[in-house]
User: What shape does this take?
Amino acid sequence: MFGEILEKVRRTAPLIHNITNYVTVNDCANILLACGASPIMADDLDEVEEITSICGGLNINIGTLNKNTIESMLKAGKKANELGHPVVLDPVGAGASKLRTSTALRLLNEIRLSVIRGNISEIKTLAYGAGTTKGVDADVADKVTEETLDSTIEFAREFAVRTGSVIIITGAIDIAADKDRAFCIRNGHPFMGSVTGTGCQLSAMIAAYVTANRENALQAAAAAVCAMGLCGEKAFARMTELDGNASYRNYIIDAVYRLTPDELDRGAKYEMR
Amino acid sequence: MFGEILEKVRRTAPLIHNITNYVTVNDCANILLACGASPIMADDLDEVEEITSICGGLNINIGTLNKNTIESMLKAGKKANELGHPVVLDPVGAGASKLRTSTALRLLNEIRLSVIRGNISEIKTLAYGAGTTKGVDADVADKVTEETLDSTIEFAREFAVRTGSVIIITGAIDIAADKDRAFCIRNGHPFMGSVTGTGCQLSAMIAAYVTANRENALQAAAAAVCAMGLCGEKAFARMTELDGNASYRNYIIDAVYRLTPDELDRGAKYEMR
Amino acid sequence: MFGEILEKVRRTAPLIHNITNYVTVNDCANILLACGASPIMADDLDEVEEITSICGGLNINIGTLNKNTIESMLKAGKKANELGHPVVLDPVGAGASKLRTSTALRLLNEIRLSVIRGNISEIKTLAYGAGTTKGVDADVADKVTEETLDSTIEFAREFAVRTGSVIIITGAIDIAADKDRAFCIRNGHPFMGSVTGTGCQLSAMIAAYVTANRENALQAAAAAVCAMGLCGEKAFARMTELDGNASYRNYIIDAVYRLTPDELDRGAKYEMR
Assistant: This one.
């Protein structure tokens, strides 16, 4: 099933509009090309509606937000909604500053989001709102473990019901949930945390997968999570004893480029809950 | 001949002022170093004139333009004109939004450009102006092929006459034309399209080649196009079965670093028209 | 001694707030991860105080400064001072434009800087002020050599006395000085100059080392300089005949990731003056 989803990304080559941070933007562009999609980056208020209009999907990432780009995110998101394009939100650092939390909440409230992807802290900040942010941050420092898995899935599903979005919580175990179902995904490698922006790259890739498979957003997003994790595993297998996180960064994107539908079908490790 | 042009880049190590996008800026800096030049990136309105003044050439790329940097591009371009420095324009995405089209046209009208480099859509947008942009975009989606080569060369030459610029149209076949002559260049590899910013990198490198060889702008620009394409070929030859577009990106820049004048002379594949 | 300093970076994993340029920001993030620290990039005026507050140290780099981020640098720096966090300044291009010089001087005057790291031109510009910048730039074009070493150390020490900062001057020979002592460091490889941003990366790494070893800022900064230079040597040893500056960039960060405390102790080449 996931193999067909990837095949459709490759066949339709969706054009993805990215309003994203300047730290990991190059990797986001290259991973979109690697998976078979095409990237456009544009964040000026005067052009984001037009750029979104010529694209198939929109990826919003608040990693280095600033006053100008926040308005651009809102404007592009509304246009994408008007056109029925999928919109992915990556609320990088929500909870770490009032600006990030309030921006993420504005995006959540003013735009229909197809997918929200973050770590557990970021997603809880969005779900519980700005008021309790600091406490939530402290509470959620722990990774999602077998012990907290069921309650985290329940939390993700409730947030999916409330927002109408697919909720992706990434960590040691990844969760992809909509209002009805949840995937628990066990692909990936801990070393991925030593490369800046693997989360940003995943969000960009989710935008591509979902744009190419709009009729099936949950499965498309889950397929992207499996694909990224599987490529993290394959990239790790390629490491020599001189390689570190810089080579690993390249190997992950290389693996995304080389990933075949068949490999994805065979390598995806998930269960439904 | 191209070998001597490269030798002069290495010998004179031109300092290039870049006002460019935040997606591919790091690769532009590293490819400038790889070819023997030095990069400076600066885009604040209050410093672009001074920075341009200490450099030998200016590279303007509108890939992620915004209201502040547009004014900086114009100011830097006028200063470069005043000083007689070569100016290269890369009109990334001209035709994709009114802001890009109108900015590219303002730069074309207000600045004497030594070289304009883009794909066929971008260059046609500049040549035909904003009014017909959408139609032009649709018409020019096709690659430059053997069938359309003569008419495209004619178009490039006419645009060169009108602007006084060297016109570079890159694609499956690359064209470099001034008012008198045209190079058809057949270096390169299709896989270069899977790396974000190979066009941006080429524009930066053209700025270096032309700055070091000002008496000979057409040949210098054509040499840079051949060099980039040849390095794309050499980099592809180095690919293993695990490598993808991320490793390829590095191999291209590595090849630019290793390229010798003699290799460039022997490997350049072009004919004059 | 330097080994213990590195061990403490790894053990305490300091979170570093970076307000830095968009050219080399990705490499700065990955080298911070490589050395055992964690990066956050944030530059909007409305969030820099909060972000600095959750971090342990602040790294300010003026490589692509603009009017908005200058105010953010000052605000973040004052907050870091208030909280007693180490602050590193990398005055990229000070002397190349009035905006850079005056910004670097404002940062120097309004913020207590733990460490200032630059090349000899940048540091002299800061020490002698804007008035004499052009002349100073011309005078200091020469590298620090054995002949000028003693006078340069004396200059660094005097500037350290005046500012209360650790002064790091990097070049063929690196100098790390506070008011009492100076390290002359002979690690590194000339090829590091062919990679954009090795200086920026070093400044980020100094911020991590000093944040984890606050009781010992001079030695921590000197350890970071040795570590970066040693990794440049190790990375160079790994180069094949096809590799150029792009692969070297990756190998340096890889080497930082792989560097062990014992290797640093054995490989550090310095003398005290």
Residues 131-140 of chain C have pLDDT under 50 and may be disordered. The domain at 2-272 of chain C is CATH 3.40.1190.20 (UDP-N-acetylmuramoyl-L-alanine:D-glutamate ligase).
